[in-house]
């Protein structure tokens, strides 16, 4: 909503509240950050040979609407910083991918492949985190 938040207020000290709000924001979008019409394309990209995956994912991201690309870049740079502080917060590339994969990337209609989709969703998010500079540049 349009209310002004004071993040210095003690009610925001629990990092889980902020993280939960961030995940909820992305979950509640009318369409995921990785748009519905590109879901299968991203899944097919992650299934490619390892050397081709980064290029395929990068090209797909370029096809997304500009606001999605910009938001994705800011979000993934932030998540990369979270992983870089893994000694303090115990978050790894894989754990961040597990948390955010299904929120950012999902099919429009769930089929019986939920477990399979989850694996691909996580792999896509993890690949982007690992290859952030290759995908978004510096």
Description:
The protein is mainly α. The protein has a single domain, classed as Phosphatidylinositol 3-kinase, Chain A, CATH 1.10.555.10. 67% of the residues lie in helices and 0% in strands. It is built from eight helices and no strands. Helix 1 (15-28) runs parallel beside helix 6, helix 2 packs antiparallel against helix 3 (50-63) and helix 6 crosses helix 7 (114-130). The longest helix has 19 residues, at 66-84. The protein is globular, with a radius of gyration of 15 Å.
| Secondary structure tally, helices | 8
Shape call? globular
Biggest sheet descriptor: none
Radius of gyration: 15 Å
Structural class determined from secondary elements: mainly alpha
Q: Please give the CATH class.
A: Mainly Alpha
Which residues sit in consecutive blocks of at least 5 with pLDDT less than 50? none
Strand content: under 5%
What is the first-to-last residue Cα distance?
A: 33 Å
